[in-house]
Amino acid sequence: MTPARGEGIAVIADARLTGRHRSDPFGGGLVDLHIVDGMIADIAPAGALHRRGAVLDAGGGFAIPGLWDHHVHTVQWALAAQRHPLDSAASAVEAAHLMSSAPVLADGRRVGTGYRDAPWSDRPDLAVLDAATGDIPTYLINADLHSVWLNTAALRREGHEPDGVGILREAPAFEISRRLNDVGPRVADLAVAQMADAAAAKGVVGIVDLDMAWNEGAWARRLAGGFDALRVEFGVYPADLPRALAEGLRSGDRVRGTDSDLVRVGPLKAITDGSLGTRTAACSHDYAGEAGNRGVLTIPYVELVELMTAAAGGGLRCAIHAIGDVANSFALDAFGATGAWGTIEHAQLVAHADIPRFARLGVAASVQPEHAMDDRDITDTVWSTQTAIAYPLGALAEAGATLLFGSDAPVAALDPWAAIAAAVWRTRDGREPWRPEQRLPAATALAASTHAGSGSDAAVVEPGSPADLTVCEHDPLRADEPTLRGMRVAATMIAGRLTHVA
């Protein structure tokens, strides 16, 4: 009989191994993985050792380390399924029209998500949105989460006076998203559980949760309610840093109030600039066609150093959002000045001189390869005047930087196979590869998706390693781009316990 979700597995039978830096003698032959107390106890040729306990038949599939997504806005990701999709909107007028038929949620709002206004020939306009949506408070969240377009009813509901446009950017936009995400524990936790199961079905065993909230209490509550689908490391934002330090939260510690080891304290998350789509990422040259606009730095350098010094002194690693090249330079400077450790999140535009500094400072680049596919056209237009390297995955890898892959869900779908495919092939939907010199070897891309949380080394499948494993249909190191994107996952497990089985 096929084991069921939640069952502990003692043997993964008839599997194949793959990955970089293999030291096993099995080549492409079938093996059995024997699991004891959540760890891989032995790997042997198929059938060589007696198969005791529950057996999962891999059917010749490939056993790889469980996949991680290192950048997720968990509640916003989960609630996106309840929000009206706007990714197809080709203009402001069309986006407003789409919202005119969006369902009204239980709280009386209409909420849409996923529009990208940079390529539009028209601009968001309050009168256009009001004409389409009337007196129902209506919110359109940009795909990059850094701006929100509101109609007059929504502006007034949130305490803002209409200004003729209705666009809120950066901190005011984040506050609107925080309010929209405050749906109550019952609704939020059910949505998170459903989306976590969907992630497990993709082979995901863990995420780094960067919700803009005090996340410890929410995760303790979810664990108490039976959440068991993923490992989680949760972030702390600057507003909550004094509380986190006063209460002794340290990166890697288990969430308090539970015996589970599934959820642990993650990094301090600080946002130092805006985004490409909102044209607020801090850059060294003007945005094309926008004289004088070089984006914004949202945290002064001195304040950033103070935050990172306090976090590092209290045992918290740092995850510093930096998209533009100026922001990346400042973030690297701050890591060097403080001795803090952790990641730069996004690293979408990096000066040539800064590429080797990631490895030299031991700062990992937490990147989202699918963003390159989403942004390839806008990058070639609004960043056409920049001299730094856009989406420099290949350059960072060649310089020895540690790469960690994620999605920034809901900005992109939580799908590690899409991230791997984008990194390896630099294309989607049959288009020519974009800036192919930045492609990664498949083994490097897989490794970037299998780091366990903030671990400095990618996970491996060998005796003595945790049995956080994914069994997939094809060898990720040899799959073409469509095969990677459509990868079928037969099973996912955490410490030998099935979280998904096909």
Could you give a short description of this structure?
The chain has 502 residues and is an alpha/beta fold. The chain has 16 helices and 23 strands. The mean pLDDT is 96.
Features:
eight-stranded mixed beta sheet; 502 residues; eight-stranded parallel beta sheet; 30% helix; 16 helices; 22% strand; alpha/beta
* Low-pLDDT regions: none
Which sheet architecture does the biggest sheet show? 8 strands, mixed
Number of strands: 23
**Secondary-structure content class:** alpha/beta
Distance between the termini: 13 Å
As a percent range, the share of helical residues equals 25-40%
What would your notes on this structure say?
Helix content is 30%, strand content 22%. It has 502 residues and is of the alpha/beta class. Strands 1, 2, 3, 4, 5, 21, 22 and 23 form an eight-stranded mixed sheet that branches. Strand 8, helix 3 and strand 9 form a beta-alpha-beta unit. Helix 2 packs parallel to helix 3 (126-133) and helix 9 packs across helix 10 (325-338). The radius of gyration is 23 Å and the shape is globular.
